[in-house]
Write a structure and sequence with these properties.
- With about 325 residues, the protein is mostly beta strands.
- The chain folds into 3 domains: about 90 residues, Immunoglobulin-like; about 100 residues, Sandwich (Immunoglobulin-like); about 70 residues, Immunoglobulin-like (Sandwich).
- The strands form 6 sheets. Strands 2, 4, 5, 7, 8 and 9 form a 6-stranded mixed sheet that branches. Strands 11, 12, 14, 16, 17 and 18 form a 6-stranded mixed sheet that branches. Strands 22-21-24-25 form a 4-stranded antiparallel sheet, with no helix packed on it.
- The radius of gyration is 28 Å and the shape is flat.
- It comes from Chryseobacterium arachidis.
- Keywords: Signal.
- InterPro entries: CHLI-like, Secre_tail.
Length: about 325
């Protein structure tokens, strides 16, 4: 009798475990997790098939448009006719939508954890320029840089793009001919250090989708003019000596709040945040040195902070918004 009870208990637990498995649908697909655990990343307009790891009695697939807010205010909408175990989505109509499936099996009803059809590999390239404070000035969208200094140019999406073609002038065609004089020979990485005058930019192909390549765009190239400008100070060796015109700035990189200034100055008549194209992005009047500056709305990248004291003294700082 005892043996029979043990057998029945094991059988009962097995039935419960089977129902638990049946009520826990999991979405899978060939690309899911290839770059990110809960995302499908498309190449161009290719399609992708989602399916559940188990078979159920009925299915209904849902989609929800992506939103930056948490919780997502957009509603879950049933996908018309999507009542089978699999669902085919594509990189044109379904980009930046969440998907989940609701299943039934007997008396159980359950839904899967959502996954996102992501366009991250589609992130268009953008260029960040890293200047040494005191060695440059921006004039009408161009940058005058002291001889002996250098400017670090980088693709803002290094994890997306693989092989780069760097240019010191705007090429005549894209993709450029291997003999195009604008090509900087041998430079194929995510970044390039410029030490000579030129009009710099790049063309790059994604690592995840090798056939998908993007041109930075000539409007996004940066013009650097190296020379012995009147704001430059040099050592006897010709090496640039940056002027002491920066303040304490923290945290750096910053995601939400930025603190800048020193107690000796107390207040600043004006604090301006400028992007690397020279555009004024944000400005604050009568800034107290210990007050936070909210930078949460800025897009990730490198920015210049110009602080003006009450007596007209200027400070320049660079910070990275992450």
């Amino acid at each position: 009798m005892k043996t029979k009870l043990i057998f029945l208990s094991i059988l009962f637990l097995g039935i419960i475990n089977l129902k638990a498995q049946q009520c826990d649908p999991v979405v899978t697909s060939p690309r899911l997790g290839a770059m990110f655990p809960d995302k499908v990343v498309f190449c161009n307009t290719e399609s992708e098939t989602l399916s559940t790891t188990q078979t159920y009695g009925s299915y209904q697939w849902y989609k929800q448009e992506w939103d930056w807010q948490t919780p997502n205010p957009n509603p879950w909408v049933p996908v018309s006719g999507a009542t089978s175990q699999s669902l085919t989505i594509n990189g044109t109509a379904d980009m930046l939508y969440y998907f989940k499936v609701e299943v039934t099996e007997g008396d159980c009803v359950a839904e899967s954890t959502p996954i996102l059809a992501d366009g991250y590999a589609y992130g268009l390239p953008f260029m960040m320029a890293d200047f040494t404070p005191g060695t440059f000035e921006e004039v009408n969208g161009e940058y005058n840089v002291c001889n002996g200094a250098s400017v670090q140019l980088s693709n803002g999406y290094p994890q997306v793009y693989g092989v780069h073609t760097w240019f010191r002038c705007v090429p005549s065609n894209i993709p450029a001919s291997p003999s195009d004089p604008c090509i900087i020979a041998g430079e194929t990485g995510d970044s390039y250090t410029a030490t000579d005058s030129g009009h710099y930019g790049f063309y790059a192909c994604t690592e995840y989708c090798p056939d998908q390549c993007e041109f930075l765009g000539d409007f996004a190239f940066i013009k650097l003019n190296f020379g012995n400008w009147n704001f430059c100070e040099t050592l006897g060796t010709g090496e640039v000596k940056p002027k002491e015109n920066s303040l304490s700035i923290y945290p750096n990189p910053a995601s939400q709040f930025l603190y800048i200034g020193r107690e000796a100055d107390k207040k600043y008549a004006e604090v301006s945040i400028i992007d690397m194209s020279g555009k004024l992005i944000q400005q604050k009047k009568d800034h107290q040195y210990n007050e936070p500056i909210n930078v949460s709305s800025l897009i990730p990248g490198t920015y210049l902070v110009v602080s003006k004291t009450k007596d007209g003294k200027l400070y320049r700082n660079k910070f990275i918004k992450k």
